[in-house]
Design goal:
five-stranded mixed sheet, Transcription Regulator spoIIAA, 4 helices, two-stranded parallel sheet, globular, about 25% strand, about 40% helix
Length: about 120
């Protein structure tokens, strides 16, 4: 398994829980690296149940949202499921404005999200 610089990866049962290490996901280089790490979970590690925990994230750029959309497509193509949790209200607002709250399965916290995989 590859070493990750942008994310912390843990397993809870069959669910891969991903925590972001960066508070602000803004610059292009970080976003590219983050995307590669996330896509690797699906493409190299064959993870099928992925939970993205946004507890540490204070700011997310539109380019980062693009990576999440691509990740969602990759997970669905692999017959997996992607869920998001612990999104701050100000970031959730961006998901609402862009209608991405309809695309992603967003849960209040990890416990609720993990039980939703069952």
């Amino acid at each position: 398994m590859a070493a990750h610089r942008r994310i912390d990866v843990a397993k809870v049962g069959e669910v891969t829980v991903v925590k972001f290490l960066d508070k602000k996901i803004l610059d292009e280089a970080s976003i590219q690296e983050l995307g590669a790490e996330l896509f690797g979970l699906v493409e190299q590690d064959n993870r099928r149940s992925i939970l993205l925990n946004f507890a540490n994230v204070e700011f997310l750029s539109s380019a980062a949202l693009g990576k999440l959309i691509t990740l969602d497509r990759k997970v669905k193509a692999a017959k997996g499921r992607l869920k998001l949790s612990n999104i701050r209200p100000e970031i959730f607002e961006v998901f609402q404005i862009t209608k991405l709250n309809k695309v992603f399965d967003i849960r209040a916290d990890d416990a609720e999200a993990i039980s939703a995989f069952a």
